[in-house]
Amino acid sequence: MSRMMEPLTLGRVIGEVVDIFTPTVNLNVVYNPNRQVANGHELMPSVIAAKPRVEIGGEDMRTAYTLIMTDPDFPSPSEPYLREHLHWMVTDIPGTTDVSFGKEIVEYEIPRPVVGIHRYVFLLFKQRGRQTVRAPASRDNFNTRIFSQENGLGLPVAAVYFNAQRATAARRRC
């Protein structure tokens, strides 16, 4: 197993959210002020309140990609009965650009974990063509695997995740 995949497996992203895949595209997710998302690292709720900057690699601008941000631990990690909760979806992103060049079909929803430590997963899929991905009916009970199958996306080409938990009064002072 590649070193890049190991954190996704240990964090149970591979297995609970997607099947094992081979990363082929660079995915760079950065929240302001310059907080890069790294697998398994924790970000404070104040940092993730605004939509991140997401840059993707890829073959060229003619190739389109779909970005999905999901919470597989909703509403709580011990009882994720609404697994997954969709936080954001952008389609038709040209390769070698960023999400601002794509079409936001599900608006960014600020992660607000109430109980426990939640994983927030960014998944990038290569589309078969432009305007081929349809918006899901609901944010709750979203299933990345089923959505990918229904829209002909296949396995992801990149993924990264971070952890977040509710900010307590003591943690806010830090």
Automatic annotation (TrEMBL):
GO biological process: flower development; vegetative to reproductive phase transition of meristem
Alphabetized SUPFAM superfamilies for the sequence: PEBP-like
Matches recorded under InterPro entries: PEBP, PEBP-like_sf, PEBP_euk, Phosphatidylethanolamine-bd_CS
Stated family: Belongs to the phosphatidylethanolamine-binding protein family.
Pfam families named among the record's database cross-references: PBP (PF01161)
Protein name: CEN-like protein 1
